[in-house]
Amino acid sequence: MASETTAAHGAAGAEHAAEGSSLVFHPMDQFIVKPLFGGDTIAWYTPTNVTLWLFFAVLAIIGLLVLSTSKRAIVPTRMQSIAELAYGFIYKMLEDICGKEGVKFFPYVMTLFMFIVTANFLGLIPTSFTTTSHFAVTIPLALAVFLTVTVLGFVKNGAGFLSLFWVSSAPLALRPILAIIELISYFVRPVSHSIRLAGNVMAGHAVIKVFAGFAAIAAISPVSVLAITAMYGLEVLVAFIQAYVFTILTCVYLKDALHPHH
Amino acid sequence: MATEPIAAEAVGKCVDSHGSAIGMPQLCFDWFPNQIFWLVITLVVIFLVLSRVALPRIAAILAERQGTITNDLAAAEDLKAKAVEAEEAYNKALADARAEAQRIAAEARAEIQADLDDAIAKADAEIAAKAAESEKAIAEIRAGALESIQVVAKDVAAELVTALGGKADADAIAGAVEAQLKG
Fold first, then answer.
1. b/e map of A78-108 (b: 16 or more CB within 10 Å)?
2. Which of A9, A33, A83 is closest, CB to CB, to B58?
3. For residue range A119-176, what is the model confidence (pLDDT) as tens digits?
4. How many contacts does A have with B, using Cβ atoms within 8 A?
5. How many domains are there within chain B?
6. The domain containing residue B19 runs over which residues?
7. Which residue range is the domain that position A52 belongs to?
């Protein structure tokens, strides 16, 4: 173990030795978790840059949804309009997919959406830390949805929830095979659900960093700046779309729990 | 640097001695408890803020706005009905006034006509009376004139007869004059 670490350090050292030249790529360094107040160890309670940017996300959400609506204006201000739009957007999505029954999960779904969309956009601030690019963040989110859906499905429908895997519209001979496929796809849900979000966010940010590395060469730097601009625009889209996708999939999974029959 | 080995031990698996990431920091399981701990706190805080404060408030605002819009629409409908009513009343008043005016005009015309007829009749009667009087006067004058002519003719005839040496026979002369006048 120790030798392996040393070897890794050796390789890294060699890489750093080559940094005298112009091209330096550290696209993944932006994702490193660091303690906020010095020190080396990261225990579960240590305030880190993760803590800081999660805190900013909370502040942003409070600012957007609470402070902006404090006047309760009939004719809304811009910020209040955004808050109302976000509310209406998620509420309608949930109601359209899950029906009236799903509305009681609205605070939960809204929490997920607001957290992801806010964290994604905060991550687009240069030099910020993108919390949603970490599997440690997206996997708990996806697992929470998975567990909620599974528990809710069995509580509401009992064993009837298993009919989700029994495709009654398929020919009888095919049903066992389909049941296996459905079962596998059901358990893959949290994996795809979490990796989709973290992967998209991480990839975009890493690509921007790679383009930024090329900017060190004067001849390429204009192209590099253009590429970063284009990627940034794309990332703005991705930041919203991934939050939207995560939320709409949550709604679809909730619908499965509420109405498991195909 | 006595702490160096401990640091390398603690951070070494994910970050190299220069502070750069080794592989994907996302897969550094040493950091997972920390991230998950703070994430859970964050989500709980967001959930509480949303479910206790933000969402009920926004729902209230939206409901209130919906109510206001509904009320305003109803009020607008009401006012529109009132406007239609007012227009109808106005038209009715206008029609009434016009009819009244026509009636008054007709009445006035009839009155004038009656007065006129009256005056004409009176004038006709007066004219007729005057004409009759005149006729009577003329007849009288005419009769007077005939008598005078008879007298004068008799006198002249008697004088002529006398002047010619005859003897004036009054009856003969009167008969002759009368016969002449009847001529």
1. eebeebbebbeebbebbeebbeeebeebbbb
2. A83
3. 999 999 999 999 999 999 999 999 999 999 999 999 999 888 988 888 888 888 999 9
4. 170
5. 1
6. 4-182
7. 28-40+47-258
